[in-house]
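Students often ask what a holo structure prediction actually looks like on paper. The answer is less mysterious than it sounds. You provide the chain, you provide the ligand, and the output is a string of discrete structure tokens encoding the 3D arrangement of the protein together with magnesium ion.
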Amino acid sequence: MKIENLETLFTKEQIRNRIKEIAQELNNIYKGEEVVAVCVLKGAVMFATELVKYLDIPLKMEFIRLSSYGSATTTSGKVNAVDISLPDLNGKNVLIIEDIVDTGLTAKFLIDFMNNNFNLKSLKFCSLLDKKVTRKVDVEPDFYGFEIDDKFVVGFGLDYDGYFRNLSYIAYKP
Ligand code: IMP
Ligand code: MG
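The corresponding structure tokens follow.
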């Protein structure tokens, strides 16, 4: 995958505007509440840091690291918890922040993990992208930025073999 061959899917302005809209929705939903935002590394790093800047609620950030991709563009079908150390989240409003929901295996794993380990006040799942057509398990993000079809995308945190996370926009190889 070469940067010259990439086509932009969402510009940085489109991404920023959409993130502001999601933030507004979250500000309304969580009004008067405290939230623990759990960023799923590495892919969600840009989305999470951008999103929380527009949240005007008491908030803490936690970071966990998972991996599911076997080769560069195909999911292994198995979620690996690389580092999932979290503080006591009992009684907390947890907002999981992900880059993309594809098969849904990662989202399902995380939701089950949270519910099995903590007695949360609430749990919501927010993903920048949603590839609904490739879903294998029945899970839907509570909030998402954009729905995309079955394309492998990079940029704004999303990688191909570790590269392209630094792009300020989201692109794909046509
Ligand atoms: P899922 O478990 O199949 O839903 O996949 C979730 C993870 O796969 C995401 O957190 C991404 O890291 C990765 N992923 C899925 N689709 C893409 C893509 O199009 N580009 C880059 N990474 C992707
Ligand atoms: Mg990835």
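DSSP finds three helices and nine strands in the chain.
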